[in-house]
């Protein structure tokens, strides 16, 4: 006799579900192994060759889980008396609380991202540090600045599902040994224990360098330049988007638009420095 509570209806083969779970499991395991091996190799190198500050060369001290040294020079990047707009990360002036509604946010074409943070204004020592971080030997500098960024804005950088980077066209990557935005993406993802997806967004065609263009030309230059090849990987997710500098916000705007079109529920921008005007 067949128990009435037991269904005898045919069921779909489960092999595909097993294969899917196996693929996800292997992918996650591979990411853990690669990240662990990278951290171990970096720690071993620091043990054999005592590290110095990647920005000024001073001897530093490593405090786990930090993999880059600290020194006094990096304290000069912080501006405790300056307020910062919570919407776009722009400075609001000394002794002004974080406003969330500055002159840059009150434009007709409001920023599509929900907020932005940086280490400070793209000027003086921080500007020099960011420029150095873009050079072929600047990878340690990006990691050091990225860890400082995560520590300073820990509360605002919490609650995301993954970390992505503003992409370059593949031909641009042929001329440089590293990508600062992708390195910042990896650094923040490691510190926040989140998946790192530096190639989540693709740049479909070459464009002129934004720094050489007027604000109007910048908007036209990047129109339709970005897309997300696999929308399912971002659908319904909160994305932390990384870049080196945010000035007019055009690049972050275009990448955010592509992410939102692919289904991202929210995009928040983290950069090393915030430029205003020509900085």
Automatic annotation (TrEMBL):
InterPro entries: ComF/GntX_DNA_util-trans (IPR051910), PRTase-like (IPR029057), PRTase_dom (IPR000836). Its EC number is 2.4.2.14. GO terms for molecular function: amidophosphoribosyltransferase activity. It comes from the Bacteria. Gene3D superfamilies: 3.40.50.2020. Signal peptide: none annotated. Residues 202-274 form the Phosphoribosyltransferase domain. It is an enzyme of class 2 (transferase). CDD domains: PRTases_typeI. Keywords: Glycosyltransferase, Transferase. Belongs to the ComF/GntX family. This is Amidophosphoribosyltransferase.
């Amino acid at each position: 006799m067949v128990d009435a509570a037991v269904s005898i209806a045919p069921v779909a083969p489960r092999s595909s579900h097993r294969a899917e779970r196996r693929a996800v499991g292997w992918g996650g395991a591979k990411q853990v192994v690669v990240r662990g091996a990278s951290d171990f190799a970096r720690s071993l190198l620091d043990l054999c060759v005592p590290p110095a500050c990647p920005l000024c060369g001073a001897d530093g001290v490593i405090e786990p889980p930090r993999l880059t040294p600290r020194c006094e020079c990096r304290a000069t990047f912080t501006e405790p008396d300056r307020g910062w707009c919570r919407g776009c990360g722009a400075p609001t002036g000394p002794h002004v609380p974080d406003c969330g509604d500055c002159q840059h946010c009150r434009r007709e074409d409001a920023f599509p991202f929900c907020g932005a943070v940086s280490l400070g204004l793209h000027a003086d020592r921080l500007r020099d540090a960011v420029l150095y971080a873009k050079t072929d030997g600047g990878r340690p500098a990006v990691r050091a600045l990225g860890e400082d960024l995560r520590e300073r804005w820990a509360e605002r950088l919490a609650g995301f599902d993954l970390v992505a980077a503003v992409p370059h066209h593949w031909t641009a990557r042929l001329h440089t040994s590293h990508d600062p935005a992708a390195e910042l993406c990896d650094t923040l993802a490691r510190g926040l224990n989140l998946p790192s997806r530096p190639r989540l967004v693709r740049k479909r065609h070459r464009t002129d360098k934004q720094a050489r263009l007027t604000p109007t030309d910048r908007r036209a230059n990047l129109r339709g330049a970005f897309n997300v090849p696999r929308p399912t990987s971002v659908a319904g997710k909160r994305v932390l988007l990384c870049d080196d500098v945010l000035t007019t916000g055009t690049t972050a705007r275009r990448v955010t638009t592509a992410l939102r079109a692919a289904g991202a529920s929210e995009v928040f921008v983290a950069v090393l420095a915030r430029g205003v005007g020509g900085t």
